[in-house]
Amino acid sequence: MNIQLIYNPNAGGGKGDKLYPLILKALRDQGHTVTPYRTLYRFHATEIAKHIDANACDLILAAGGDGTVYEVLNGIMQNTSSKEHPLYGLIPVGTGNSFSVDLQMKNWTDGLKAVAGGKSREVDIMEFITEGDKYYSINAIGFGLVADVSYLGNKMKKFIGKTAYTVGAVAEIIKFKPQKTKLEVDGKLYEYEGVFTNFSNSVWIGGNMKISPNSIIDDGEIECLALENLPKKDLLKVFPTVFEGKHLSVPQFKVYKGKHFKVSSEPVKICNPEGEIFGVTPLELTVLQKEIRVLTL
Ligand SMILES: [Mg+2]
Questions:
Q1: Half-sphere exposure (CA, 13 Å, Cβ side) for 291?
Q2: What is the pLDDT of residue 91?
């Protein structure tokens, strides 16, 4: 195959850089022609994927974590060189490799096995509109406490390492205020005081949080999980159940399934597609069923 390999050297705290020579060699040993691109700045991967000649390429391969998967997906969706989207492959080398898990790939060697096997499947993606522009998410996007924790955690990570997210969660819970949320699901309106609202295409977020256990990546439906109308005193007890995947039996967690969503919040909140801090409410989301073909194990 002619492979365009986009790799993020900073993925997984430098794992991308360390594994790059091994990944490149393994792909060439499989007999592929590989053109590598090293990403240098945020959204560079989007620019690269957007400008690849899809007619002259059999596979766009992203080596990175959730953020790289997001950036390359958006480049592929903006690529107008061919009528069909190119085949998309993932080499998981990030801190979180959430979407890869739904494709039975846990680490970089699984990604290489998927390239060698050549098995692929069509999957859904979520188109979302924020501030008048269209973007795409393959994993999940939300706002509220989950996004706020990752925002603060990302900022503190370089100072205090992995504990940043735990410290971030406690800090955000202490100062937490709910959002007045209006959610329209396929034309039906719901209103609630939200702790967070999250739209999932796949099961996991952040690599290890089973936020949407019933999500199916090609059923043409988005699963929206909202934590609603929870007294602040119960927040520390209830919120962590989402990290353990035990939350669906807690009555304040509501699941909405649909194809088209409109959501607004008061106050305006930041969003977190694929764990990246990007976009703000209000959001409009539409599922694009089986929009893109990805390599799978
Ligand atoms: Mg689905």
A1: 19
A2: 98
From the CA of 87, how far away is ligand 1's center (Å)?
Answer: 20
CA dist., res. 202 & res. 128, Å (int): 16
Q: What is the Å distance from ligand 1's center to 9 Cα?
A: 31
Domain count, the chain: 2
Is 294 within the bounds of a domain?
no
Range with the lowest mean pLDDT among 108-122, 139-153, 179-193, 275-289? 139-153
| 112/143 same-domain check | no
Q: Report percent pLDDT > 90 for the chain.
A: 80
- State the chain's mean pLDDT as an integer: 94
Residues 6+ apart with CB under 8 A from 274: 66, 67, 69, 70, 98, 99, 137, 138, 139, 140, 141
- The 10s digit of each residue's pLDDT in 133-172 is 999 999 999 999 989 988 887 777 777 766 777 788 788 8
User: Which of 66, 85, 118 is the last residue before a domain boundary?
Assistant: 118
**Strands 283-295, 133-137: pairing kind:** unpaired
Residues 232-241 pLDDT 10s: 889 888 888 8
Q: How far is the CA of 270 from the centre of ligand 1 (A)?
A: 23
**163 CA distance to ligand 1 middle (Å):** 32
CA 92 to ligand 1 center in whole angstroms: 21
Domain co-membership, 66 together with 177? no
Query: What is the CA(215)–ligand 1 centre distance, in A?
Result: 5
- In tens, the pLDDT along 244-273 reads 788 999 999 999 999 999 999 999 999 999
CA of 219 relative to ligand 1 center, distance in Å: 5
CATH value at residue 102? 3.40.50.10330
Residue 271: domain span = 137-289
From ligand 1's centre to the CA of 179, what distance in Å?
Answer: 26
